[in-house]
Amino acid sequence: MTHVVATFYKFVSLPDFDKKQQPLLAYCQMQGIKGTILLAAEGINGTIAGASQESIDAVLTFLAADARLADLEYKLSYAESPPFERMKVRLKREIVTLGLPEVDPNEQVGTYVSPQEWNALISDPEVTIIDTRNDYEVNIGTFTGAQNPQTQSFNQFPDYINQNLDPTKHRKVALFCTGGIRCEKASSLMLSQGFAEVYHLKGGILKYLEEVPADESLWQGECFVFDERVAVQHGLEPGTYELCRSCGYPISQEDKASSKYEAGISCPHCYDRLTEEKRLRQQAKIQQFRQNKDVS
Q1: PANTHER family annotated for this entry (predicted)?
Q2: What is the DSSP letter of 271?
């Protein structure tokens, strides 16, 4: 069965965000929807999946009943198996955590660039291209010529800017991320620090992979996504990566051929940190999973 996946976000003032949690959760559950929606005073951010387009449309219509979310944009993709196990609606301080509450995309953001215009922008030698995602995401795919900030979490991005970029030298900056949300905050931050021209890919990598043909693409590799699909390729087709069930790192077929890979126990990215206690714990999880599977 093909499952419909919808991703969306919007920075908008939602001072009553906490009151939306339970009604939204109940409605999603009634529609058989699974996934995660984050609510904060600064807006909404979510990825949800359903067994039918009708169920997804119902939730999007439910959200749009709030005038503040009436123009909520979303992206659709598809998965052969359920990408989420349960439905969660969480209350957060930020819908994407930068750690600087004074940075407000509702006040200012960079210049949006469509997927069709993106190649020309990042081919300009005067443009500094920055991947705002975390290191493990960058490692499985990125744009040609992009800088990797080598962050482990998004709240390290401000330090990267302070230590590596100068508004007087880097006058044109192009940012990109998975779906666009991190670039909203990153571009707002950089504008507040005096960077003259800050551009970001509208709709993120996912929109680019959906709309730009592979033979015209400047994307290399696959794009990590935060669900059971792990990664997607051009046309948003399923990728080739899996998750290490021990450390959560995306692993390739090459990683699985390594002597350091043991299904559910370790991979080349965590093997050297594997303690005997962790090994026993992971083995117990695998045994419990098999027993539950046999019972069901």
Answers
A1: RHODANESE-LIKE DOMAIN-CONTAINING PROTEIN 7-RELATED, THIOSULFATE SULFURTRANSFERASE/RHODANESE-LIKE DOMAIN-CONTAINING PROTEIN 2
A2: G
Candidate list 28, 177, 183, 267, residue with the active-site label: 177
Q: Inter-axis angle of helices 17-30 and 53-64, to 10 degrees? A: 160
Say what the pTM is: 0.86
Concatenated DSSP letters of 163-179? HH--TTT--EEEEE-SS
Distance CA 190, CA 103 (A): 10
152-161: Cβ within 8 A, 24+ apart = 153/97, 154/96, 154/97, 154/98, 154/182, 154/185, 155/97, 155/98, 155/99, 157/98, 157/132, 157/182, 157/186, 157/189, 158/98, 158/99, 158/100, 158/189, 161/189, 161/190, 161/193
Does 177 participate in catalysis according to the annotation?
yes
CB atoms within 10 A of CB 181: 23
Note whether 188 and 109 are within 8 A (CB).
Answer: yes
For the cut 90, the answer to whether the pLDDT of residue 193 exceeds it is: yes
> Does the pLDDT value for residue 188 go beyond 90?
yes
Which of 293, 274, 273 shows the shortest CA–CA distance to 282?
274
Q: How far apart are CA 233 and CA 222, in angstroms?
A: 5
Which domains, and CATH codes, for the chain?
3-91 (3.30.70.100), 111-221 (3.40.250.10), 243-295 (no CATH)
Burial code of 204-217, b = ≥16 C-beta within 10 A, e = fewer? Answer: bbbbbbbebeeeeb
